[in-house]
Amino acid sequence: MDINEPVAYINVEERKLEWAKPTTWHTPTVAKMDKIPLYNNDKRFDLDLQYGQVFEKKVADMLQNSKIEVKTEREKWKSTGNIVIEFESRGKPSGIATTEAEYWFHNLALGNDIVMTLVIPTKILRNYIVQTMPRVVSGGDNNTSRLYLLNLQSLVKMINVCA
C-alpha cells in the first residue's frame, strides 16, 4: 500500500469512518487456542492478552459501526491545559448540543501532528458538562461560537464520576 494513500475516510453525511479498502487486523481479536503461550513469568499474561483482545475488538467496532464526532484542538491546549467543546454557533445549537454521535473524538494537535486523541462516549461527555457547569467562552470564526472551556486534568479526573 502507498503510504500517501488514505486507509480510511470520514463519511460526513453518515458521520462514520469508512475503510478505503477491506481491512484485516494482523492481531487476532479472538483467541481460540487450547493454550495461550506465556512470554514472561506473569501467570496472568493469558488473562491480560484476552482482556486486551476484547478491547481491540471494541475499538474496531467503534470505528467501523458507530457514529463518531471528530474535533481537533490546535496548539493553545498545550499552554493552557484546556480544550473547548462547541455547543452553539451563530445563535443556533451545534457541536455537543446537537451531535448524534455515540463517541466524541477530540484530537490534540501540535502543528500538523496529532499528539493525542481523547475518545469519550458522548453521553458521558454531556453528563460531565452538566455536572461540572464549565465556564463558557466565545471562539471560532469571528467569535460567533459559544464553547465550554474544559480543563484537561479535571476532565480526566472527573470522567469516572460521570460514567
Structure in words:
This protein has 163 residues and is α+β, with helices and mostly antiparallel strands. The chain folds into 2 domains: 8-65, no CATH class; 68-162, no CATH class. It is 29% helix and 32% strand. It contains 4 helices and 9 strands; from the N terminus they run ββαβαββββαββα. It has a 4-stranded antiparallel β-sheet. Strands 3-6-7 form a 3-stranded mixed β-sheet. Strand 4 and strand 5 form a beta hairpin. The protein is globular and about 50 Å long. The termini are far apart.
Quick structural overview:
With 163 residues, the protein is α+β, with helices and mostly antiparallel strands. It has helices spanning 45-65, 76-80, 122-132, 152-162; strands at residues 8-11, 16-19, 68-73, 82-89, 92-93, 103-110, 113-121, 136-139, 145-151.
Keywords:
single chain, about 160 residues, alpha+beta, 2 domains, 3-stranded mixed sheet, 4 helices, 9 strands, about 30% helix, globular
Structural topology:
Blueprint (H helix, E strand, L loop, with lengths): L7 E4 L4 E4 L25 H21 L2 E6 L2 H5 L1 E8 L2 E2 L9 E8 L2 E9 H11 L3 E4 L5 E7 H11 L1
Parallel strand pairs: 3-6
Antiparallel strand pairs: 1-2, 4-5, 4-9, 6-7, 8-9
